[in-house]
Amino acid sequence: MSGCDDRRAKQAMAALFEKGRDGLDADGFERLRAHLATCPECQETYTRLSRVESVLEQRALPQARSALLEQALFARLQPAPARPVVVAERKRWFSFPLLMPLSLGAAAAAVALLVVAPSLERREQGVPEWQARSSAPGEGAWGVRAFCIAPTGTVLAEARPGGTLACAEGNAVQFSYTAPERVRLSLEGLPQAGGEALRFFPSEGTAPEVAAGVDVPLPFSTPVQSGWLTGPVPVRARFSDAQGRTVADTQVTLTPR
Amino acid sequence: MEWDDDTLRRFREGTPEVLAEVYRAHAEPLARLLKAAAWRGAFVRLRNAMELENTLLETFARAFEPRTRAAYNGTRPYAHFLMGIARNVLLEQSRERELVGRDEAFEGLTESSPEDGGLAELLEDREVEALLAAFKGGLSREEHRLFELRFGEGVAQEEAATALGLTRIQVRRREFGLKSRLLGFLQSKGYLEDLETQGWSFFKRRGAR
């Protein structure tokens, strides 16, 4: 096994063992975890130290590690101010619990009316089913469209792939995608003013698989509030295969109204 | 923990105190279940402490998402609900690793019977227990008593201080000293021999006493 020269990681492991939760703060624990993710040797050490602690405490999860994991968990649950897809914001927009599914339903229904109906119409005009939703019909089979939806469920505006959607504070942005086959999908916004990337879909984790379909609405809307949409936000939709290779890449730009 | 109507409501609302209570009540039992599964041969990667902790973190993060919180009815044992989420997390992780060609998730599943896994865990625990016994054998009477109180019986520092006629600060310092010596001892006995590489000065400084 090759030696690891990261002394800070080793000191962090020793401090955790010697002093428990007093030996490492949340940031230190995160740094250690980041190092462990790339260092098999330190993983082995971490595991061996954990085993000693487990035997000492008669626990599967030593108390100090449990406490630090709890901190990491709550840090992860904490909504970042600039992130649009956060629980609290969605809860505020759909402030009435019963209204949430109704509002979502209304939004989805509105999208369906606006999107599915034209897609049927296009098919009648002889456009192939999988080539109806791009910015240049007939050229692309993959795409994402964005809709600005009022709290009542009314669609106020829409943008095709490559287009721009203007949406005012108080409304919500809803995306739909078109994919000719089952694929992994991620939507990420990159504010031109800089700052953290905005993850529209999924809100956490790796890109999930989505079913093939035409203008399939994503399962949730993103409220425009708390100042995340103050300038142009290009949203990149990336379709990738099971191996992570990009199948298609498209973009919609969001702007404040 | 008790799931009365008020607890369930506050849990669904995402009240931090309730989420913390749920985490504290279920993290250890879930870790125990996952570890046992790993030693029985399923998801052997969970024998790695970092993997186990990552799985726990991911499981609770998903369990505490608003939609998942709303899906819990308060009637079914929460441990079962949580285990279902953990199973999904593990299967997803396995699929992802398999797809990129470095899946080791089910390694040993066909080779080891549950008894084999249990024995392997037992042997590793025995090794650690023997080392700890040897370490304790070299402690003074007072140190031995402190070690037993704090680590064997899990007595709080305050209580240990009272029992030993010390202040809590003294207990804390002596406990730190004991842990440091234990670290050096484990190193000297080869249990942590992989640490004996350049840069491990904190072990070399202390050594076994």
From TrEMBL, chain A:
Segments traversing the membrane: 98-117
Keywords attached to this entry: Membrane, Transmembrane, Transmembrane helix
Record-linked InterPro entries: Anti_sigma_zinc_sf
Gene3D superfamilies on file: Anti-sigma factor, zinc-finger domain
Name of the featured protein: Zinc-finger domain-containing protein
Source species: Corallococcus carmarthensis
Source lineage: Bacteria, Pseudomonadati, Myxococcota, Myxococcia, Myxococcales
TrEMBL record, chain B:
Protein name: Sigma-70 family RNA polymerase sigma factor
Keywords assigned by UniProt, alphabetized: DNA-binding, Sigma factor, Transcription, Transcription regulation
UniProt key word Transcription regulation: yes
Lineage: Bacteria, Pseudomonadati, Myxococcota, Myxococcia, Myxococcales
GO molecular function list: DNA binding; sigma factor activity
One of the GO biological process terms: DNA-templated transcription initiation
Natural source organism: Corallococcus carmarthensis
InterPro entries found in the cross-reference section: RNA_pol_sigma-70-like, RNA_pol_sigma70_r4, RNA_pol_sigma_r3/r4-like, WH-like_DNA-bd_sf
Domain RNA polymerase sigma-70 region: 138-176
